[in-house]
Amino acid sequence: MKEALGVSHTQMGLMQAVNGVAATVGYIPGGWLADRYSPRKLLATSLIATGLSGFYFSTFPSYVGGLILYGFWGVSTLILFWAPFIKATRNLGPDSEQGRLFGFLEGGRGVWGFLIGMITLLVFQKMGEGPEGLMWVINISAVVTIAAGLSIWIVFEDPAYDEKPESALKYFRGALKTPQVWIIGLIIFCGYGLFASQSYITPYMTGVMGAVVSYGVLMGILRTYGTQAISAPLSGMIADKLGGPTIVIGTAFLISALCMVLLLMVPAEAHNLLIVSNIMIVLALCVFALRGNFYATFAESQIPVRTMGTAVGVASFIGYLPEGFTYPLIGYWLDSHPGLPGYQITFSYMLATSIVGIVATLLLWRVNRDNRLVARS
After folding, report:
1. Span 2-155+168-376 CATH architecture
2. Which pTM does this prediction carry?
3. How far apart are CA 266 and CA 169, in angstroms?
């Protein structure tokens, strides 16, 4: 992409930064839009507009055009998409099935991501692995995205609400005054921090433990796609059987903490590769169990559907903050403490993140329990 656009590393980073700023700023207004306007229309508009912009991107515009496109995608793929996406999923079933719904959603994202990625990879290779191959990949992705938007327009139905949507400020104040929104945001913060950090276990195996690169690639594929397709839907079904996602989330954080303790204890030697690989897979299963149950907590916390968009926006703003600092932070640790010491600092950070996640989950369970007791009295 850098070659096709004719930009420097710095310019490429600035384009991504524009997208990141637009996305981060957009979580909260995007949530309000989801509460005020039809999720079906917002999702279809988001996908179709993003797909159409892909055709322009496939012409490889100038640097200024790239900046504009990346900023536009921050609006089209997040402000118009994320909160309506979560709200529409919640509307697909009753509160007792939220774990299953969000679990299969996360698992399905992994399956479709893998299939579309493999198809576009084959096309890219066939077309020479250069700018022309990238052009075909972008155009195929654009067509798939537009098709998804048209499918939503045809298939989805918006729920009917008796109440008229109120002001954005009132919804926003209500979300800020709801303790569960802040706690869920902290849970997402810890879960996403683990998700981002776990990718460094692969270079740990290849760079410190001496594994060959092909082994690291294989384990990376299993960690990313295999565990996502299995863990997210299975954990969602378990959450529904147990009566709510907080038990699954708390257990996943606890097992993650144990995994990090083991990872810090196992010597970084080649004969321990199988042990470390198994720890990585168990950790990945926990991470995708977390991702598959994050948003089921809104129903368990009895946050009204009509204001869920704003609540999702506020919680997501808090929860996805690690997206902006995790990679530079770990990169700094690995550069300033080369080899094993840098990875030990990283794994200690992941352990601390897991412990905070356990505390946050216990706090959410207690607040929800107290609210139920008040409602019954």
Report:
1. Up-down Bundle (1.20)
2. 0.81
3. 52
